Amino acid sequence: MARIIPVSAPSPDAHAADLPRRRGLIIVLSVLAGALIASLWSFRLVDSVIGDNVANTLLGYDAKHTEIGGLIAGTVFAFVSGLAGTFTACNIAAFGAIAPMTNAGGAHRADSSDTSGRLRIGATLRPIGWLALGMIVVSGAYGAVGAALGERLPQLSTATAGSSLPPRLLQASIVFGVIGLAFVYLGLAALRVVPDPFARLSSRFPNARLVVIGALIGGFLIGRPFPLFHKLFEYAAETRNPLYGAAVFILQSLGNITLMAVLFVVLVHATRGRFTRWMTAGPSRVATITAVAFIVVGAFTFLYWDLRLPARFGYGWFPVAPWE
């Protein structure tokens, strides 16, 4: 029988020796890494070259310029465009969830038995399921609201504000700024620099952390300006059907995390548990990896959407790579 390795986030009353020694250095280097990624990031590459080509190949037509031909076509478009948007700036932070999913205790050692293999896969998929639960609640609710309100939402507005800053980008800046700071806070909490918001809740609801992280990922749709998602949003709003809006937004979110979930399963099982054992070798390593993952993606998300994006419209300055 496969042996489960139960690993959870460090408890607030754990011994100081369980924490990494140079927490300040970890924080500074993680923020700098996030800033560097935000500076070098090419939205043209990930949105157009990768995103559009993936969608065009899977759908078999020009996804950006061909009208969505009905409810079924829109349903397929929702998942495919979500998958195509995996590496966009409005979704890449989802990969930061791999560390807490590993630490949740769902991944464990492998052996050669077919029976234990089935159990092993089920246990590995469990943290993905909890993550998806939080994501589905948020994305589904927003899809229903979006289909009902339509163009009354800033995300579908064609107006401009200030130096030609579209309201949908202003909404993106606000939403991703909040989400980015939330990720940074979770990273600092892993190092116990700030209080862990799940310290007490996790004792009664051990999967609460993953559900909330999933909710943050679902919140990506509230700010997402990705052109293919914008096209899907417009179509869902035209239907005026909240149930359909909820369904396609959920599919969009599931598409967004599909590659991340596959990567997580591969890392756990292709290494026959070595990845899990390395990640969870000790409380100090758990805290370090979790903190780095959250702070890097959080810093990137905040800096990209709240400093680099406004700078493109004349609000402040942010260093950008020459290819941008």
From TrEMBL:
Keyword Transmembrane helix belongs to the record: yes
Domain of life assignment: Bacteria
Protein name (Swiss-Prot/TrEMBL): Cytochrome C biogenesis protein transmembrane region
The entry's keywords: Membrane, Transmembrane, Transmembrane helix
Transmembrane regions listed in the UniProt entry: 25-43, 68-99, 128-149, 169-194, 206-223, 243-266, 286-305
Signal peptide: none
